[in-house]
Design goal:
191 residues; five-stranded mixed beta sheet
Length: 191
């Protein structure tokens, strides 16, 4: 009778967006000097690619192909394949809106942009900050940045859902200008 052989994908654990996976396997109940080789994997039904970052959510790694080297083209074993599920968590970043201080000059003042001040983007991802604030009169204007004012994309499109984003507000401060009112010189006059 054939022996039972289980090829089990090794546990990947939970990872964060931007961490790459490295699938491996364990051959349980392999007998004598028999070996397993040429193992390939799929992730979510697609061929595994070592350069792929998997997005936020749950995924499955499965064995796609393998060779049992038992001198009988694998005919000595009933092979059972066990996949592994893993979860990808969002990558934490903080985006801080820009701040600026200017002096009132009679024209509209505007402030745009922001930067990542904690965490980092995954290689290949790009942040665009489109939020803005404007003011004309002296005073302080809060630059409130939120998800509507940013996009994070890569060559596959929008990847913002792979990030847990904390926003920090900026501020546009317009200081009062100095104004001197001076009485015109009357010169010397005679009474």
């Amino acid at each position: 009778a054939k022996a039972n052989l289980t090829l089990k994908v090794n546990d990947q654990g939970d990872i964060t967006y931007g961490d790459k996976i490295n699938p491996g396997y364990t051959a349980e109940t392999l007998l004598g000097s028999d070996t397993v080789s040429n193992v390939t994997f799929t992730v979510d039904g697609n061929d595994y690619n070592a350069d792929t970052y998997y997005g936020n959510g749950n995924h499955t790694i499965a064995i796609k192909e393998y060779t049992v080297n038992d001198g009988n083209n694998g005919g000595n074993y009933n092979v059972t394949l066990e996949s592994d599920g893993f979860s990808v968590a969002q990558r934490a970043i903080t985006i801080t809106a820009n701040s600026s201080s200017v002096t009132y000059n009679g024209a509209d003042q505007s402030l745009t942009g922001g930067t990542i001040t904690s965490g980092s983007l995954v290689e290949g991802d790009t942040l665009a900050v489109t939020g803005s604030i404007s003011g004309r009169n002296a005073g302080s204007y809060d630059y409130v940045l939120n998800a509507d004012g940013i996009t994070i994309t890569n060559s596959n499109g929008d990847v913002e859902s792979n990030y847990a984003i904390t926003f920090v507000d900026g501020k546009l401060d317009i200081a009062k200008a100095n104004l001197t009112l001076k009485v015109n010189d009357q010169g010397d006059i005679t009474y």
